[in-house]
Protein: cAMP-binding protein
Amino acid sequence: MIDILKKYMSDFTSMSEDEQRAIAESLQIGKYKKGKYLLMQGNISDIKCYFVLMGCVRQFFVDESGKEVTSNFFTEEQAIPIINEKTQGELSKYSLVCVEDSILVVGDVTSESTMFNKYPQLEMMIRKMMEINLGEMQDQLCEFISSSPEERYNIILRQRPQLIERVPQHQLASYLGITPESLSRIKKRMKNSY
Structure:
């Protein structure tokens, strides 16, 4: 697992092997069972961020009618956006829950500040990773908004095919903005067209 982090440090920084090892050894790694909530909608947000080493985490909210709406899935080598200082002490607008048993790097503002002061390139690496993550999310949102449900499903097949097998059908349908029945019809039409 630590090799994944070292890969990122090598790709985004010129830190020495010793610095990479020291950072990797000082990180907090959390193991979470399937169904474990990292954050619950309506609870007070603390300042945490996560990086998925293994597993899948779902971001969702419950709308006014009581319906769960899935807004994202985070899988291996993806950062779960930082709950920033602006939202500290406020009620969270969404929940984060492990869809699978997961291993995550857990960060908080206090430890990050200390690490950034000690290893300035680490802050640059995190910023680059978050910029890439934000850019990808913006592209996906644009593509999703302008797509039909069938096109959205094709996007998932093309960009994140592992989600098809890893997440429950009703959660995937919610993420695509359709009902589970509509998703079944789309899958059936696509299967019959091959």
Remarks:
- The mean pLDDT is 87.
